[in-house]
What does this fold into?
Amino acid sequence: MLQTVGVGIGGLAVSGFAGEVATAKTGCARGPFERTYEPGTVNVGQIRAGQAREDAPSPSIDPASPRSGAADGEGEQPPRLAAQESNVGEEGPLTIRTEYDGVNSLETRGGVPSDSQVAAGNGQLVHALNRNVAIYNKQSGRREQFFRLESLWEPVIEEPEGGFVFGTPFVFDPRARYDRNADRFVLCATQFQFGLTTDGERIDREDLEEAAREDGELDTSDISRPPKGWFLVAVSATSNPNGEWYVYRVPPEDASGVDNEGLVDYPTLGFDRDAVYMTQNFFGTTKFEVTMVTMDKAAMYAGETVTAYHFDRMNDPDSDGITFTVHPGQQPFSGGSDGTFYLANSDFPVPFPGPAETLTLWELTDPVDEPTLECFTLDVDPYVYPSPARQPETDSLVDTLGTRLMNVDFNDGSVWAAHSTAVDWNGDGRPVAAIRWYEIDARSRSVVQSGTYGEPGTSYFMPTVGSGGDATVIAHNVSGPDTFPRMDVAGRTADFTPGRLEDGIVVESGESKYNALSGPVERWGDYNGVSVDPASGRFWTVSQYSPDIDIPVEEDERDPYFTRIAEVYFEEATGGGNGQSDS
It folds into this structure.
């Protein structure tokens, strides 16, 4: 195994830190713009469970993420970096305690990719994915409820003139969280309303994609109804997800000054003591940008009218590329009116495929009254956009999701995040995707440790981080010429060697090739889920894998994915449940 190399600061090994503390940048965003939003109420226990399937378009686009058909980095030359080789298969302290299958794509309605999320409460577990929500008894795995995403926000979704293009609202890209401080479940998603021309033709996401790539605009002379996008956010009224929820749509259609003509894509979700935060990649008819909103948590959790503050045009002027997919942290015990809330993003490398050498740390203060947003550029080891992953028995490749962060978690003063990068293990010009992870000290705004983790010839990708107590885990996927797409979890405890992951385990092996959309690059996952158990501090994880079902691409039926929910923990680690302090 190779060891990540770094220098020492404060007793910790450092990788990817240039020795300078980041300084605040001005002009990072425009705003805030104050708005208010009215709630609706839904009783989840009264929603009729539905498992009907229907044809629908793939729910996610990614205009800023080109997908090469070249396998595993052919023709790309990323910098050769010291990296840790996977220790899957070796005996170690990371253990699976409880596991069961979640929702699979045979039950969903056009839900490719899965966008699989998990939120663990005290008795129930919520599994959200494209385009459904399931509620399970956390320990037994018995499913208690299963319904369509749009059912949750039915009171606040208005039917447009001319009706919905597919007969129902198009709701996708869910995020699911559990607020351990308030014992509430929080969900968000996107509603996209397809535009129409005067001839009744649909203005699709592909039109917005092309406009964003060309930095142009749609021809609006023939548009009778512009495409629009909304945040949808919901919070359970109690710790029981089978009861009432308060639901909101942001912004409303008549929100003066907040432009939602375009596509709200890849929403993210976080919170601190006082506010709920959402960001989005926004593909408007004339622009591509990142926007965010802060929402008063006390009012939202009471089901009252919520005051919110919008920021748009989020951009780090010192980044190595496009500011893209900014993730808010999970810090229920800190931040708010008398603290700092943290967000972070990696760069979309320009010129493509990189390398890029910076992350951006965002700091927001006083979110409920007078929010202030600043950005800080952090120097890190170079990273390169990885190519799709191979899989056995097919030329079809699996999307590794590029260099975007998958999420941000906050634990005891540290910001944790991870993304994929290309690593040329053998120096032969055939790099594969590997995991790059970071621990950022929030107070000093410095990367105190990072590591690169993977395996020669095999791709490791889509890393999602959870940190609590003395442990940190990374749920991710693995695929290669000898490995069907599978679900893994790796992680470390606080006292382990800096810059290294302590142990890795296979949660669920893939059993067949995955050809859901006939290639050449298969959409996969888009993100995984990790949730810290509020009682035990153990970690609940979810991801997708390819089951022993292989449907030929010429058939009308899609090749399915399954999802797996697993409770994992380190045997000697101290848990980070409701007693955890984020300060």
Summary: Residues 1-21, 51-64 have pLDDT under 50 and may be disordered. The longest strand covers residues 372-383. The CA atoms of residues 326 and 345 lie 5 Å apart.
